[in-house]
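Translate sequence into structure tokens.
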Amino acid sequence: MTRLKAGIIDVFGESALSGNPLAVVEDAEGLTDATMRQISREFNQAETTFLLRSDVADWRLRSFTASGAEVFGAGHNSLGAWLWLAAEGKLGTLQAARTFRQKIGNAVLPITLEQRNGVYFGRMKQSPLKLLGSLDALLPLAEALRLDVPDIRPAPEPRVAGTGANHLLVRLVDNDAVDRARASAELLLPVLSAVGAEGCYIYSYESGRAYARFFSPTVGLWEDAATGTAAGPLCAYLGAKGILGPEKTLLVEQGVLMGRRSLLNVRLTPDAELSGTGVVVFRGELLLVPAE
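Result follows.
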């Protein structure tokens, strides 16, 4: 029997049972890809992150959705894993900020953690912004979101952007339009496929704040409560368009309709740097009994 320490942490939440839940599994070196996918289905969270040792970084992270798709990028899947490590005492004292290195896919990225008044905070740099395809027509997108074309603002144009994972960023006219969206997986999938996007991030924006929702049927993830791999490129995209203020910061509120209000802070340094906290809500042991 294999025993692995595991748990759940609510990432980007101000208190337990808010934010975006992440399952974390330690000491995953001996697990096959198939077993990781099975464990992810067992936890049935948006993502499960497995912690592995690395020769080129402090930790290697691998993350899978409940449907078994492996996802990359420095988002809630990685921030939550490091906040878990901090809470488990595996990173030493964090009274002063300390920087570590994480290997995600082929990228090695820095992450900085510190403890303030008993609460752990993390901030991590994402990869440089990459801008990819834009839409030729808005009608198929509007229909996929069950919205009208005038609900979509033309500036900045809907565009695929990525700082580790590529998502279609779509600005809507206001918060009400974001809440009214009722995305259809059947209609959204061909829209995303045509522009090479993994997910669709709809948002409204005003004075350094964004109100957002995220849909990613390409990896079997319907709506996500907090998406760092979309908030980062959104901040970088708005910065590239000259829309952000001089502070070059963005506060993203997400997950409200899901009852999982999440707050994601992003700033440009000059690449996107994502920050937030999390709350451990479950600690336990994963028991893997081999089949006879």
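Note: The domain at 2-125+277-288 is CATH 3.10.310.10 (Diaminopimelate Epimerase; Chain A, domain 1).
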